[in-house]
Amino acid sequence: MSDQPLSPRPEARNPRGFGDRRGRDLIAERRLIARVSAVYERWGFEPLETPAFEYADALGKFLPDDDRPNAGVFALQDDPEDEGVGSWMALRYDHTAPLARYAAQNWETLPKPFRRYAYGPVWRNEKPGPGRFREFVQCDADTVGSDRPETDAEIIAMAGEGLIAAGLAPDQAVIRVSNRKLFDGLFEAGGVTDPVQRLTALRAVDKFDRLGWEGVSALLGEGRLDESGDYTKGAGLSPRVIGTLEAFLSSATQPGLDRAAVLDAVSGAGDLGAAGAQALAELSAIDRALSAMGVSQDAVRFDPTIVRGLEYYTGAVFEAELLLPTTDDKGRPVRFGSIGGGGRYDDLVARFTGASLPATGFSFGVSRLAAALKAAGRAETDVRGPVVVIVFSDDDMKTYLDAGSELRAAGIAAEVYLGRAGMKAQMKYADRRGAPAVVILGGDEISAGQVTIKDLDAGRALAANLADNAAWKAQRPGQRVVPRADLVSTLREIIDGSSINVPPVS
């Protein structure tokens, strides 16, 4: 016997911020992608797929340390190249930076403007939280090569249509819009010229909906200690500039104002400089375009507290906020807030080419929206599993396998139960799979050339209205015996007539 110590068994656990998805949850995400992608295509956007990894310098806005660029992203070092120095690669943080790289690499051959959509997982090396993951799915649409404000308006209107396609009623979400140039003007007037200080201040304002003015003012000043004990260093703005920002935000966030009235309130809040005046002109053009497309004031609102956290935004910014009440698994209210966002990023492609190329886009947080719908009791309930063929005897396995093959050939999802449990456990298995029906081919059915089919949906509905077990046994709800030749047609009738009739998932 070996004296070597046994290796400890690994603990089966997920890395923090990474989740497993199966069955119903995964199908829910795929349906959201299919529905939103259909909206994008209807608006004339073509699909584009870029690799999961990009060279880290393409994601440079997130990399404060050139020697170890893994803050904010998950990075690794590639094999040394010809010059003997390995290049850092990082999992994509979003779909926007890869688009900028692709546009710079292929601009000469692309239609201009270039309209594309993309979906797939992205990865962020950040602190996870409720509904916030390190790996999640996004579904984006962007237009590269147009500086017209109407392009922003089109993206916003399309995003609103995507929210409806995802299953939200018009009053269950709102898209809030602003323009980063408003703050550029305020900073210029206040003498705030340091880019890092400006960005820190913008990130503070971006937390206005979550922290309120008290929390934001602390972050605009020296800093803030949060509930967990973590300290966030502030922007270090002067009290005068902080007071100006407070007056600006309070005048611009009065309830009940339509888009034009918000712009009037903002313009009268103080000196916005040339950049602020340009922002107001762009927002006014967006408002006119939205109105021309029939987008209501309730669906899209102007809200200058929206700044978005990413450094690359240069103009209009927008954020989709979920208004649907949500609760956690213990029934406690939980706020999801943003379920998507975007804006204009006219300088991102210039990182590769040196020449400014205007661009704007919007991104749905598919995983976040799916989690929010589930928390609101709006999870997909019409997910249907396969028909299950019950197995009684190894001697009749060919009969069961033939039945499964016949159903699949007819376009009906079906599986033969290949465990070793008895009939009761097999019925429970079929119920857990969400099967519309089970096929029973016992010895009596086989010898008589018949098949017994249990319509599980009908059985559940009828059983709920029967008072006792004896009545259930007498009526055998949802059960029928048909000739074996009628197997396919009977199951198709059951599936097509079910109250849970599921469209195919693209």
Automatic annotation (TrEMBL):
Q: Where is the Aminoacyl-transfer RNA synthetases class-II family profile domain?
A: 41-386
State where the protein is found. Answer: Cytoplasm
Pfam families, sorted: HGTP_anticodon (PF03129), tRNA-synt_His (PF13393)
Checking SUPFAM superfamilies in the record gives: Class II aaRS ABD-related (SSF52954), Class II aaRS and biotin synthetases (SSF55681)
Renumbered residue ranges of the record's region Disordered: 1-22
Q: Does the keyword Aminoacyl-tRNA synthetase apply?
A: yes
Q: What is its main location?
A: cytoplasm
Q: Does the keyword Isomerase apply?
A: no
- Highest taxon in the source lineage: Bacteria
**Residue ranges crossing the lipid bilayer per the database entry:** none
Q: What EC number(s) would the UniProt record show?
A: 6.1.1.21
- Basic and acidic residues bias located where? 10-22
Ordered alphabetically, the record's keywords are:
Aminoacyl-tRNA synthetase, ATP-binding, Cytoplasm, Ligase, Nucleotide-binding, Protein biosynthesis
In terms of Gene3D superfamilies, this protein maps to: Anticodon-binding domain, Bira Bifunctional Protein, Domain 2
> Which reaction is the catalytic activity of this chain?
tRNA(His) + L-histidine + ATP = L-histidyl-tRNA(His) + AMP + diphosphate + H(+)
Record-level Gene Ontology MF annotations: histidine-tRNA ligase activity
Homology family:
Belongs to the class-II aminoacyl-tRNA synthetase family.
How would you summarize the oligomeric state and partners of this protein? Answer: Homodimer.
Q: How is this protein named in the record?
A: Histidine--tRNA ligase
**Gene name for this UniProt entry:** hisS
